Fold TetR family transcriptional regulator.
Amino acid sequence: MRESASTASSVASTPSGEPRLNRRQAAKVRTRQKVLDAARNLFAERGYEPATIRDIAKGAGMSTGAVFANFQDKAELFEAVLTEDMAGLAETMQKGAGDGSTRDRLVNALSAGYHGSIDQLPLFQAIVARSWFQPVAAETRQRAATRSLTDVIAGILRQGVAAGELNQDADVPLLTELTWDAYLSNYRRAAYDGWTVDQLARHIGRQVDTLLAGVATK
Amino acid sequence: MRESASTASSVASTPSGEPRLNRRQAAKVRTRQKVLDAARNLFAERGYEPATIRDIAKGAGMSTGAVFANFQDKAELFEAVLTEDMAGLAETMQKGAGDGSTRDRLVNALSAGYHGSIDQLPLFQAIVARSWFQPVAAETRQRAATRSLTDVIAGILRQGVAAGELNQDADVPLLTELTWDAYLSNYRRAAYDGWTVDQLARHIGRQVDTLLAGVATK
C-alpha cells in the first residue's frame, strides 16, 4: 500500500484529457484526500474497530463535520482507503513481475506485493478480518477492489499458458484463487511470527512451485 | 461444529479411568457446559463482537456473575467454544475420510468438515475474522485448537506418501497449509454466495486435484 501521490494539482492537470477542475472542485478533492490519508494512517495503526471518526478528523486537522461532508460513515471511508490502496498495490505487483519465466514473474509480482504492503500490515489485517464479517454489499465492493490484484495473478498465468510454459488445459481461475489464498494467508506469518518480506517471498516461492508443479509443461 | 454431547454424567463416569467427580464438581462442569452452549449459540447467531456476556448469561438461564465465575471474559469464553468445536470437527473429518485413494480420503474428510460446520457458518466466520486481529497469546491458543484439523489433513497426506500414491519428496507441511488455506477460504463462498455443502465439496475436490497434481505418482 502507499501514501497517495495524488494532489489537487495533478488532478487539475490530468494528462488523460479529463476536464480540469475549478478551484472549488480542486479544494474538495484535496480535502477528501487529506481525510483518506489520515484514515489510512489510523486504520494502519489501530485496525478498523478502534479507529474513530473523531481521531481521523483530528489527524486530518479538520472537524468531524468536514469528514462527514465527504464520507457517509467509517465503513465508506474504509472502503475508499481499501480501493485506493488495492489499486496502488496492483500496480506495484504488475511492475514487480518483470521478465522471466511464468514462475519467476508470479513470485516476483507477489514478493513486490509483500514489499509494498508490509509497512501497513495492521491495515491489511483489518481488511482481511473485516472481509469475513461484513454486509454482502460491502463484500461486493471489496471484491471489486481486490479484483485488480487477482487480475495481475491471472494475467501472468494466462501469459504462461499462451507461451506454452503451462499446459493448455491449466485451470487459470482455480490456480489464481489458490495462489491468492496462499498469498493472503502468509500475512498472518508476518503478523504473528514476525516474518520479514524476504521470508514471505521465499515461502510464496515454494507455494507457487507446488501450485504450478501439476501444470508446468517441462 | 456440534452441539456438545458431554453431560455431567458422562464426565462423572469417564471410561478412561480419570477420577470420578463429586456432586459439587459435577455441578460445576454442568454449569460451565451450559454457559459454553449458550455462548456457542449466540456467537453463531451474531458473531463475536455483538454477542454480550449479558445475553449469553440470559441464554444459559443464569446471572452474569455465574458466567464470570467460570470464564474471565468474552475472549476466554470464545476460545473455549472454539477449542471444543475444533476438536469435534477434527473427529468429524477423521471419520469422514473413510477408505479409498489419498485424493478421495482428503476430499471426503474436507467435505465432512463442511457438512459438520455449515449450520454454524457465522460462528466460523467470527473465528476466522478474529484470527486476523487478536493478541499473539490468543493466536497461539487458536493455532493449538486448529492444529487438530490440520493434523487430519497432514495425516492423510503422509499415509498417501507411505502408500506410494504421492511422491516420497512431497512437501506434506506445505501441501497441508495450501489445502487448509483453500478449505477455509471457501467458507466465504457459503457466506456471501450462498454456496451449499455440495458446491463447497465439489470445489474443494477440484482444488485438491490441482494441489496433488504435482505430487501424485500416477
